[in-house]
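step: validate -> pass
step: tokenize input -> pass
step: predict -> running
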Amino acid sequence: MSKLNTAITVLTLGILMGWIVSTSMPTSDKPVTLPNAIAAAPTGGDFSLTSADGAFRLKDYRGKVVLIYFGYTFCSDICPTNLALMAQALNGMTENELAQVQALFVSVDPERDKVATLKKYAQHFHETMLGVTGSPTELAEIATRYGAAYRKIEGESEGGYLVDHSSNTYVIAPDGSLHTILPHATPAQEILKVTRKLLTES
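step: predict -> pass
step: emit ->
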């Protein structure tokens, strides 16, 4: 990893920790019980969720490569690691490449992660990254199709409970198909390589 990438990672994680400290605690004492989504053979496909700027429809991003990560803002290390690596990949793109790519953070914790919060969280990593969420039913259906798994775990944490979740990054091709599933902590250069290959082929 270059000194520049290392500096970006340190800066990103530092900003994130500052954001977590400054975030107010949730007011609800009865959080929604998240479904125990079971990872299945992924098929991907279109979906609609909600962002701070309105409806998000994956089909509206035909012609672009979309990078999708399922997580939640109270995640202490797994989500920040993957989103920081995604941000490094985005920072390594040319202006023309970046215009053809959309990074998406899907929160599976809609009780605590409101859309305004998600927008700030996602943009701490990269200004072009979008944060979206939906109802528990919508999220469970989408996660199942993508092979993403998550479940609520009661226990002591800053937010009152944890969400155990898979940590893959899903790469959507310009035609809307699920092209590649990248495992946890895939290096930024590998994310960039896969993305550029799809852009070249489209």
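step: describe -> Residues 3-22+43-201 form a domain with the Glutaredoxin fold (CATH 3.40.30.10).
step: cleanup -> pass
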